[in-house]
Predict the 3D structure of the following.
Amino acid sequence: MLYMKTCFYNIDTGKFEMEDIFGNKYWINVDEVEYECADNMYQRSALDYLLYNKPVKYVNLLLSGELKEYVHQHPIYLQY
């Protein structure tokens, strides 16, 4: 389990930066995550909402492998 001390999105680099309680730093390239998980602009906006407003949930979904399922099952962003 990863215990985070800090986590934030660095808009200048386009990466999500985290630091655990042991001082280890991790970076997630958000562009690559969006490319793999989102198929349209609505799903990308769902990812952006998580990234800016609920960063801990974003990381937990990403690390557990459930981020793609979350985006594709979100009812507002389903294509008709």
